[in-house]
C-alpha cells in the first residue's frame, strides 16, 4: 500500500541516474560504463526527443529565458519500441520515464524510503540477499548459512505435526504430505540455529526430582499427582490422574515465569488424555490441545487449536513445540494473515494443563528447542527410509506439463543428499550408528539411472548428474545437484570402509561434471535454473533472483571445500549480475 503511494509520488521525480544508465544499456549502450560516453549519448537521445516535439506544460517565458536552468517539467510522449506510447517528463536536457514503467520493463526493484521527512528512492537491480557461509566447513558444522532459513514459517507449510514433529507441506497437493527435502531442510536449519544461539536457557517445571508438587493445581477432589519411579531409565517421574475430558480444567501448572515460548516434555498415557497449553494473545486466551488423534491440525474458529499426536498412547512421547508457530499455523486454518498479525500477537504462555491418566517427565519451558527439532527431522528420515534407501515423494511433479513429469513415488537426489547432511550431523552429535547407516543406505539410488527409478542422469551420455527431478528427458536442475554433492561430501568425510569409498566415488564423479558444465548455466546476466533449453526445445528457464542467490550461496560453500579456480571466477561473475553487471558482448 505504502508502495503504491510511493510510486505515484515518484512518477514525476523519477530517477535520473538509474534511468539514463539503464536506457543506455538497453538501447544505445555499446561501450562499457564511462562518464564521458554516457553524457554524449544522453545528449544524443535527448535531441531525438526534441525533434518529436513536446507537449509543454511549463510557462514558456521561464524556459526561454534560462534554457540551461529550466526548473519546470513538461510532459512528452515516449514511444516504446515503436509499439506503445507512455507519458514522460522533460526537464531541460533531461527526460524522466516513470519508475513504474522502468520496474516492469527491466524487472528491477525500488521503493521510496522516508526517514525524518527525508525521502529517497532505494533502487535495486535484484531483490535477494547473499548469505555467505562461515569460513570453515566440516560435516558437523553449520550447513551453508541455513540459520537464515525459516522452513516452518513458509506459507506452503501447513504445520509441524505433533505426531512426528516435522513439517507437512501443501505445495503440490492440498491434502498435505511430508516432503523429504523440506523435512531435511527443517532439520538443517534448526541445527544451524542451535550453533548460532547455543544451548537455550530453560526453566524446568516438573521432572519428578523434587518432592514438592506445590506448583500443581487440581481441578477437583478426585484428581491427584504423585512422584513415582519411572519405568524408563529408572528416573523419577510424576504420575497424574484426572478426567480426560477437555470440558474439565485439567491439572494445571503456571508457565509464564520467564517468557519462554517453546516447551518440551516426555509423557506417557494410560487412558486417553491430552496436554493443553494456554496462551494469552491480543485477542484473548487461545488453548492449544495436543490430543490423540490422526488429524494433524484443527481450529474451532474461536479459541481452541488441536494438534494430533497420532495413536501412540501407552508409549513414551517426546514432544518439543514452538508455540508461536503452533499458534500461527492453527489460526491460519480459519483466519487471514492480516487479521492474525493485527490482533493475535502472542503475549505470553499462561499455563500448562494435563488431562487423563499418565506420567510426565522433563516438563520444561525453553528459549528454543532447536536440537529437538533437528532430531525430529533425523528420526523421521530414519523411520521413513524405504528398502531402496530412498525417501519416495508420494505426489506427482509436473516440472513441465506434458514434457517433464514424475508420477508419485519418485526420488530426488536433492532429498537424498540433504537427508545425508542431516543424518551425518545426527550421527556425529549422538554417535548412534542408525543415523550413519541410513545415510550410507541413501547412496544406492545415486548409482541407478533416472529411467530405472534412480536419480542419475548423464549429460551427453557421459557426465554423471544427480537429478533433483529425475525426469526423462533430463532437466539438470543446478541447485538440487549441488545440494546433493554437499550431502555426499559430508558422508565421504564421515563414513568408513565401503560406504566411504562409495560416497567418494559418487562425489568425485559429480564434481567433475559440475566443473565441466557449470558455464552452461551462465546467461551473461544471470543464471539458468536448469538445462531444459538444451534437452528439449523449450525456452530457457532463467533462475529468478532468489535461485540465482542460492547458486551463489552454494558456490561460496563449494569454494571452501574445493579451491578450484572455476568456482571463484564463476562466483565473482554471478555476484556481479546481482548489481546489474553483464558479461561483455562481441
Ligand atoms: C481422546 O480425546 C480427544 C480429545 O478430547 C478426542 O478427540 C478423542 O476422540 C479421544 N479418543 C478416544 C479414543 O476416546
Ligand atoms: C528426561 O530427560 C532425561 C535427560 O535428558 C532423560 O535421560 C530421561 O530419559 C527423560 N525422561 C523420559 C521419561 O524420557
TrEMBL record:
Membrane topology term: Single-pass membrane protein; Single-pass type II membrane protein
Ranges for domain D-glucuronyl C5-epimerase beta-sandwich: 235-357
Pfam families recorded: C5-epim_C, Glce_b_sandwich
A single GO molecular function term of this UniProt record: heparosan-N-sulfate-glucuronate 5-epimerase activity
GO process annotations (BP): heparan sulfate proteoglycan biosynthetic process
Enzyme class: isomerase
Catalytic activity from the UniProt record: [heparosan-N-sulfate](n) = [heparan-N-sulfate](n)
Pathway assigned in UniProt: Glycan metabolism; heparin biosynthesis; Glycan metabolism; heparan sulfate biosynthesis
A single Gene Ontology CC term: Golgi apparatus
Signal sequence region: 1-25
Chain segments annotated as coiled-coil in the UniProt record: none
Keywords of the record: Isomerase, Membrane, Signal, Signal-anchor, Transmembrane, Transmembrane helix
Annotated D-glucuronyl C5-epimerase C-terminal domain residues: 385-574
EC number: 5.1.3.17
Cell location: Endomembrane system; Membrane
Family the UniProt entry places it in: Belongs to the D-glucuronyl C5-epimerase family.
Protein name: heparosan-N-sulfate-glucuronate 5-epimerase
Amino acid at each position: 500500500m505504502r508502495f503504491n503511494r510511493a510510486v505515484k509520488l515518484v512518477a514525476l521525480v523519477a530517477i535520473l541516474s538509474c534511468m539514463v544508465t539503464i536506457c543506455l544499456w538497453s538501447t544505445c549502450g555499446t561501450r562499457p560504463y564511462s562518464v564521458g560516453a554516457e553524457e554524449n549519448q544522453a545528449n544524443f537521445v535527448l535531441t531525438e526527443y526534441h525533434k518529436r516535439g513536446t507537449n509543454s506544460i511549463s510557462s514558456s517565458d521561464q524556459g526561454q529565458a534560462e534554457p540551461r536552468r529550466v526548473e519546470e517539467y513538461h510532459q512528452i510522449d515516449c514511444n516504446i519500441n515503436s509499439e506503445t506510447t507512455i507519458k514522460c517528463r522533460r526537464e531541460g536536457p533531461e527526460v524522466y520515464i516513470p519508475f513504474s514503467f522502468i520496474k516492469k520493463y527491466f524487472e528491477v526493484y525500488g521503493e521510496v524510503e522516508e526517514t525524518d521527512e527525508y525521502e529517497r528512492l532505494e533502487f535495486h537491480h535484484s531483490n535477494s540477499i547473499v548469505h555467505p557461509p562461515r569460513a570453515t566447513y566440516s560435516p558437523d558444522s553449520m550447513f551453508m548459512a541455513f540459520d537464515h532459513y525459516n522452513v516452518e514459517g513458509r506459507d506452503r507449510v501447513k504445520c509441524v505435526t505433533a505426531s512426528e514433529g516435522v513439517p507437512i507441506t501443501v505445495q503440490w497437493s492440498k491434502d498435505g504430505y511430508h516432503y523429504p527435502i523440506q523435512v531435511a531442510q527443517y532439520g538443517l536449519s534448526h541445527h544451524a540455529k542451535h550453533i548460532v544461539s547455543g544451548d537455550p536457557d530453560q526453566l524446568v517445571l516438573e521432572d519428578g526430582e523434587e518432592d514438592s508438587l506445590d506448583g500443581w493445581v487440581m481441578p477437583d477432589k478426585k484428581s491427584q499427582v504423585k512422584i513415582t519411579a519411572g519405568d524408563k531409565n529408572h528416573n523419577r517421574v510424576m504420575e497424574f490422574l484426572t478426567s480426560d475430558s477437555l470440558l474439565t480444567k485439567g491439572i494445571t501448572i503456571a508457565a509464564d515465569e520467564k517468557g519462554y515460548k517453546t516447551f518440551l516434555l516426555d509423557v506417557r498415557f494410560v487412558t486417553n488424555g491430552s496436554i493443553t497449553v494456554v496462551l494469552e494473545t491480543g485477542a484473548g486466551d487461545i488453548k492449544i490441545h495436543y490430543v490423540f488423534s490422526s488429524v494433524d491440525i484443527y481450529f474451532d474458529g474461536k479459541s481452541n487449536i488441536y494438534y494430533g499426536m497420532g495413536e501412540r498412547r501407552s508409549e513414551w512421547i517426546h514432544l518439543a513445540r514452538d508455540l508461536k508457530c503452533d499458534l500461527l499455523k492453527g489460526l491460519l486454518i480459519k483466519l487471514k494473515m492480516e487479521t492474525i498479525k493485527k490482533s493475535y500477537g502472542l503475549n505470553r504462555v499462561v499455563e500448562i494443563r494435563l488431562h487423563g491418566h499418565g506420567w510426565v517427565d522433563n516438563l520444561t519451558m525453553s528459549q528454543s528447542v532447536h536440537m529437538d527439532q533437528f532430531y525430529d527431522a533425523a528420526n523421521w528420515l530414519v523411520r521413513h527410509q524405504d528398502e531402496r534407501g530412498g525417501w519416495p515423494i508420494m505426489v506427482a511433479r509436473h516440472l513441465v506439463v506434458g514434457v517433464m513429469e514424475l508420477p508419485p513415488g519418485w526420488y530426488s537426489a536433492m532429498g537424498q543428499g540433504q537427508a545425508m547432511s542431516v543424518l551425518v550431523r545426527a550421527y556425529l552429535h549422538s554417535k548412534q550408528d542408525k543415523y550413519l547407516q541410513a545415510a550410507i543406505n541413501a547412496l544406492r539410488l545415486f548409482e541407478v539411472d533416472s529411467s530405472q527409478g534412480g536419480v542419475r542422469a548423464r549429460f551427453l551420455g557421459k557426465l554423471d548428474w544427480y537429478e533433483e527431478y529425475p525426469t526423462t528427458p533430463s532437466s539438470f536442475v543446478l541447485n538440487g545437484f549441488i545440494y546433493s554433492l554437499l550431502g555426499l561430501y559430508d558422508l565421504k568425510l564421515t563414513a568408513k570402509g565401503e560406504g566411504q569409498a562409495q560416497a567418494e566415488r559418487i562425489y568425485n564423479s559429480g564434481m567433475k561434471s559440475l566443473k565441466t558444465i557449470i558455464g552452461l548455466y551462465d546467461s551473461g546476466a544471470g543464471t539458468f535454473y536448469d538445462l531444459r533449453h538444451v534437452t528439449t526445445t523449450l525456452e530457457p528457464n532463467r533462475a529468478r533472483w532468489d535461485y540465482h542467490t542460492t547458486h551463489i550461496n552454494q558456490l561460496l560453500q563449494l569454494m571452501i571445500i574445493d579451491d578450484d579456480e572455476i568456482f571463484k571466477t564463476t562466483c565473482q561473475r554471478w555476484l556481479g549480475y546481482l548489481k546489474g553487471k553483464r558479461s561483455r558482448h562481441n
